[in-house]
Amino acid sequence: MAIGINGTDYAAPEDPRVSLLDFLREQVGLTGTKLGCNQGACGACTVLLDDERVLSCLTLAVQVDGRKVRTIEGLADAQGDLHPLQVAFIKHDGFQCGYCTPGQICSALAMAEELRRGDPSHVTVDLAAGPEGPTRYEIAERMSGNLCRCGAHNGIVSAIEEMLQGDSA
Amino acid sequence: MKPFTYMRPTDGTEALSLAAMSKQARFLGGGTNLVDLMRQHVETPDELVDVTRLRGNIKETTSGGLLIGAAVRNSTLAAHPHVRQNFPVLSRALLSGASAQIRNMATVGGNIMQRTRCSYFYDVTGARCNKRNPGVGCDAIGGFTRYHAVLGASEHCVATHPSDMCVALAALDATVHVAGPDGDRSVPITEFHVLPGDHPEVETVLRSGELITAVEIPASTMAARSEYRKVRDRSSYAFALVSVAGAIEIAQGTIADVRIALGGVAAKPWRAARAEEFLRGKEVSHEQFLDAAESELAAARPLEGNRFKIELAKRTIAAVLGDLARDAA
After folding, report:
1. How far away is chain B from the Cα of A55, in angstroms, using its nearest Cα?
2. Where are the alpha helices (DSSP H) in chain A?
């Protein structure tokens, strides 16, 4: 087995103590994914595991053997053009220092899929019917696992809103 | 992190035999709590048995209840149509817990087995904790106790169980299915976690080598109108100060049946049996709800930093029951 990372296979580490985050940064050389709190409180290390958002700091690399990981480095297309959400983050000032950005963007991509599926959130009024739409309130609640200490949250929500509008157009 | 051996069994039987190889073995679910505790040297297993790939699904039982595999992820359970429709309190409780990323990782079994977030329990080098080192004392008592227990605590431990899901399961009369070296057994969720007493290091009735395999929720007409309200220091991604899971059945203006469970107040999800007893057969009114809450909280023993929880719990119980009664009318 192997861990598929952005389309390339890597052998899982020998030492089971290595987190997926440390594996990505220190063994694979993909330093886009960031280490924040290292205890599941900030979301900076968010990556996509089989298209679902997870925290790579609390995931042991050996646990994802045989599965597919996508990181911020895997979002641009083959020509190197940025993903529309990356473009929207730039347009709406969805960051300042940029440290939380890779986690924010990976998180938001999976969140868009959760919304499309009709998964409810804590603020969804009608549980059975699902979310009424991607309101700023819904987006903020669904992104609460990603902290931005620069306080760019309003820009982040705007960037995500733009991407979601693009999806439905 | 202390070195350990990692193993990934393909079925429950293999998981049990692998875990039987060491007294210090731990089953690994999503890792959102255990991996963190290992990094802090609170947990130092020599063997991790990864049970996240054991078959886990959600099945309707013949009676109209649900059988939920222990490896089912919290996000999957929260979004399940049957749960949203018939057991909304469970969806609501799950969705109020942690973050989307953590709910994607966390399993049902791991949610039940998660340990207290008492900061003194985590502070291996700086604080005494009877859970970590039985008999050494408790630095939480006399310390920062905003998040600590007001019900069922002891002079040895005042920690709370942090789960939201378990509070909903307690209100729903759920049962925990367990497999072990001595066979299978079932334990009501309300009896699964134990109060600290003289042995706060003992947190559940799970025996060495036993594995949670599923959670069963019985059919309930009441549960279709059930609610979870969580009061916390920020509106998302925070543990409960107080939470209330409730369900109510009203017939001709009187309370035919009611379920109330509290979170954030004790070492276990707290089924408010006294308040339920008080309310059965009574007329629906805000005063009755408050009196019922009063009867439950009469046993509360606050610490310096959490006296507010008693009043908060009473008002939250009354508010939840009031909401449910209005919807039922």
Report:
1. 6
2. 20-22, 84-91, 101-117, 136-142, 153-168
pLDDT in tens, A9-63: 999 999 999 999 999 999 999 999 999 999 999 999 999 999 999 999 999 999 9
Query: What value of ipTM does the predicted structure carry?
Result: 0.97
> Does any domain span residue B265?
yes
Cα of A101 vs its chain's centroid, Å: 9
Q: What is the fold of A84-168?
A: DNA polymerase; domain 1 (1.10.150)
* Contacting B residues, span 227-266, partner chain A, CB-CB under 8 Å: 236-237
| Domain range A3-74, CATH architecture | Roll (3.10)
pLDDT for residue A167: 64
Q: A73: which DSSP letter?
A: G
The answer to whether the Cβ–Cβ distance between B105 and A58 falls below 8 Å is yes
Record: contact B1-A141, CB cut-off 8 A: no
* Nearest residue of chain A to residue B90 (CA atoms): A127
Choose among B161, B157, B151: nearest CA to B197: B157
Given a cut of 50, whether residue A169 has pLDDT beyond it is: no
Chain A residues touching residue B3 (CB < 8 angstroms): 15, 17
Instruction: State which H helix or E strand residue A48 sits in.
Output: strand A46-49
pLDDT tens by residue, B277-317: 999 999 999 999 999 999 999 999 999 999 999 999 999 99
Among the partner-chain residues A53, A55, A144, the one whose CB lies closest to the CB of B237 is: A144
